[in-house]
Amino acid sequence: MKSKDLIRFAASAIAAHPMRSALTSLGVVIGVAAVVMMTSIGLGAQQRVMSAISGLGSNLIIVSPAASRSGFAAQAAGSDISITGADAEAIAKQVEGVAAVAPTVRGQAQLASEGTNWNSRIEGVTPDYLVARDLTIGQGRMFDEREARQGRTVAVIGTTVARELFGDADPVGKRIRVGSSPFQVVGVLTSKGQSGFGQDQDDIVLGPLPAVRSRVVGRRVKGDTVQTIYIKAASEDDLSRVQEDATTLLRERHRIREGEDDDFQAQNMASILQASQAATATFTILLAAVAAVSLVVGGVGIMNIMLVAVTERTREIGLRMAVGAKRSDILIQFALESVALSLAGGILGLLIGIGGALLIAQLGSWPMAIPSWAAPLSLGFSMAVGLVFGAYPSWQASRLDPIEALRRE
Amino acid sequence: MIEVRDLKKTYQMGDETVAALAGVSLSFPRGSYLAITGPSGSGKSTLMNILGGLDRPTSGQYLFEDEDVSHLDDDGLAHFRNQRIGFVFQSFQLLPRYSALQNVELPMVYAGIEVKERRERAAEMLAKVGLADRRHHRPTQMSGGQQQRVAIARSLANHPDLLLADEPTGALDSSTGKDVMALFEQLNSDGLTVILVTHDANVAARARRRVGFRDGLIVSDEGAKS
Question: Number of helices and strands (H, E) in chain A?
Fold first, then answer.
């Protein structure tokens, strides 16, 4: 008995009932297609979130005001601003292993220049902001510490702002109006493109913190307060220690007693990444459960039809045994049939799944990434399903008594 | 020489023990042409199944050219059937999906013979039974007589030592039945050992030796013993 003969037997049995074979495989087709589609979309979403998070800058700790409680009503985070530029300076001086500390205020402002205008995000920052956020200057220069302290009205703009206000002209040295205050453009940021969250990262104006606070966002941000302090640790190893030290320092400075909640929150990128990875893991387990259920359903369908086939072909089995088929030959023939049905379903399901994911990505502009393990895993799984659910019918076929089998009508 | 000694086969039917064979001894040399006759339930089919290696006796011995067949395991019996025995059934037992050629190839597939050789031999066997021009027909496209001749070609595929035919003409009209019988006689005269099981007296009369069965025992044995 040669294996290619066994394959030929299985193929001819499947081809003898094309419609039935197709319907038998359908369960596996749907199962595999669903899994491939869902994982592709899930992985795409995950990559989008990852790139969004890493796009914020590496080794970054973000300190923002905590939601304060007044009575029982929790208020939105940042509604009672509690962190200050002085906090940022203290961190820069007293915490070791810090590469940059950037206190920031921000607002939305109408920009105008030579008759055109544009609405953009404006951030009041210190020069260290570029280091903290992994930004670079494409043209001109960044304003320096002295200009910032002196409250000079200079600005660095993103490429989107440059294009909208100046077209192809060089914006460096030009004057723009931010809200009602005139600022002089000294530099243009290197383009960063769209962020993972879908935001245009080049649609931004950076100004010195004091000037922006007093002239643009003054009413909302009082005194020395800031909305965010970005802290960049010198290395990944320093990240969690810097975060701890900064937290301790801020608690001291804010006179928060033992046992009391922080009035700020410090998050680092690693912990955000971890949280999103945990969410992904949950999602993956959920998918695996769905996959398992749909494959079991598909497998039961295959088992059902294989049992019918064994009953229908009892005489064939008897005849094969009479002319010299061993029990193992019969077992392998039926197991191969079952695996072939399931594997064909798996291949078709994989193609439909990839096609469906591409279609959804096209129509919904949703990011999609087909995981590299999709093909081997779904084919492996469908083969295993065929083996597991074909085992019992095949074993039954192989245990038939040839005399009884030949007599069956 | 093929020989069975004191062959017994019993079945348990509820509380009762039924003896299909109650002690049968029979021997015949190569090239014999036997007809086994008897009413249904007389044990002739049971003997056929044991001779063909489809069944094992409860007790007794079956010696096939000095090989003790009664002690072979399932795989051993499968190999024995494949190499030594050719079966011809009343209902032909052809696989409807396969062409005449593929049906004849089947025993050779289980013998592990290469495709090319198998095709040639199957075509040769079909020519031998007069169906050279029907090799790509399916059983449903052939008459009963043609189907039985395909089945005979299949039984000859692995050059068996013993051809067992169970009511081979039972499903055929008398003239095609005669053709099939003539084919058996020709095969026998070429040296093949043939055993027919039948309750048709006319068919049995053509065999050189006739063994009669009743209630699991041999009750008559007529004709040439060698």
Answer: 13, 12
Closest-CA residue of chain A to B95 = A316
Q: Enter the pTM of the model.
A: 0.73
- Indicate if A99 and A248 belong to the same structural domain: yes
Closest CA to B22 of B37, B44, B48: B44
Q: Does any CB of chain B come closer than 8 Å to the CB of residue A179?
A: no
Q: CB neighbours (10 Å) of residue A360?
A: 16
Q: What type of residue sits at position A51? A: S
- pLDDT of B148 reads 95
Q: Which domain holds residue A166?
A: 81-262
Which segments in chain B show pLDDT lower than 70?
A: 225-226
| Chain A hits for B55, Cβ within 8 Å | 403
* Mean pLDDT of the A206-229 span: 81
Q: Which residues on chain B are in Cβ contact (under 8 Å) with A316?
A: 95
Smallest Cβ–Cβ distance between A325 and the set B49, B97, B110 belongs to: B110
pLDDT value, residue A219: 62
pLDDT tens per residue, range A155-202: 999 999 888 888 888 889 888 988 888 999 999 998 877 665 667 788
pLDDT tens for A349-393 read 999 999 988 888 888 766 777 888 888 988 999 999 999 999 999
Nearest to B82 among A315, A323, A328 (CB): A323
Contacts of A2 in chain B (CB under 8 A): 109, 112
Confirm whether A75 is domain-assigned.
no
Q: Which of B55, B106, B108 to mutate to test the interface with A (most CBs of A within 10 A)?
A: B106
Within a domain: residue A254? yes
Secondary structure of residue A281 in the 3-state scheme: helix
Q: Which of A228, A262, A296 is the last residue of a domain?
A: A262
CA–centroid distance for A192 within its chain: 19
Tokens of A113: 């220049």
Nearest to B54 among A16, A322, A326 (CB): A322
Of A262, A284, A302, the position where a domain reaches its end is A262
ipTM of predicted complex: 0.95
Tell me what pLDDT residue B4 has.
Answer: 95
Number of domains present in the structure of chain A: 2
Instruction: Give the pLDDT of residue B46.
Output: 93
Which residues of chain B does A406 touch, with a Cβ-Cβ cutoff of 8 Å?
89, 93
Strand partners, A183: A176
Nearest to B48 by CA among B177, B163, B200, B172: B163
Are residue A113 and residue A87 in the same domain, yes or no?
A: yes
pLDDT computed for residue A79 by the predictor: 45
Least confident stretch, A7-21, A286-300, A316-330: A286-300
Residues A183 and A246 in one domain: yes
- Map out the domains of chain B with their CATH numbers: 2-223 (3.40.50.300)
Residues B107, B81: Cα–Cα separation, whole Å: 9
Could you tell me if A175 and A169 are in contact, meaning their C-beta atoms sit under 8 angstroms apart? Answer: no
Residue A198 counted as domain residue: yes
Contact check, Cβ <8 Å, A325/B52: no
Q: Do A106 and A247 fall into the same domain?
A: yes
Greatest CA separation found in chain B?
55
Q: Which residues of A touch B83 (CB under 8 A)?
A: 324
User: Which of A317, A319, A323, A329 best tests the B interface by mutation, with the highest count of B CBs <10 A?
Assistant: A323
pLDDT at A73 over 60: no
Rounded to whole angstroms, the Cα distance separating A42 from A36 reads: 10
Q: Summarize the confidence of residues A88-111 as an average pLDDT.
A: 89
Does residue A62 belong to any structural domain of this protein? no
What mean pLDDT comes out for the span A228-245?
87
Say yes or no: A254 and A284 in one domain: no
pLDDT of the residue at A78: 46
